[in-house]
Amino acid sequence: MSYSISTLLTRNLQDVFGENDAARRRAAIDELWNEDGVFYDPKTGIHRGRDEIDRIAGAIKATHPDFQYQPIADPEELGNAGRVRWVAGRPGEPPAYAGTDFIIARDGRIPLMLTCVKLAGSWQPMLWCEAYCIAPLTAGLARRGAAG
What we know:
By secondary structure, this protein is α+β, with helices and mostly antiparallel strands. The chain has a single domain, classed as Nuclear Transport Factor 2, Chain: A (Roll). The protein has helices at about 5-15, 20-30, 50-60, 125-145, and strands at about 35-40, 45-50, 70, 75-80, 80-90, 95-105, 110-120. Strands 1, 2, 3, 4, 5, 6 and 7 form a seven-stranded mixed β-sheet that branches.
């Protein structure tokens, strides 16, 4: 099945990184991600392939199983790429952190996702992370053909 960039972003946020049930999370990864997909997190590094993406998504969710991810704006699309900005926290409480997920889409699936997270009260502005962490990595991967 092939999905739009906006659908990939939204479902990945909720059904992969927001899912506590391991079987449902894995089914979503198999549906949304390319077999050789790459997930980059500035904190944990590069994770290659569905098995590794499943492992790290489960590990991330296990650190805060009661947190919910909520988009703060509609996903944005440009060509074969897109981003969604979101917040996470316990229902009924102020967000504990915010983030932006960036993807490259190919044939209606995700071959590449990059994420950037800002803790509440952190000195690190999100735009710094986007400009100095995500953009150069994306450009480098695109030059090597990893993005598409």
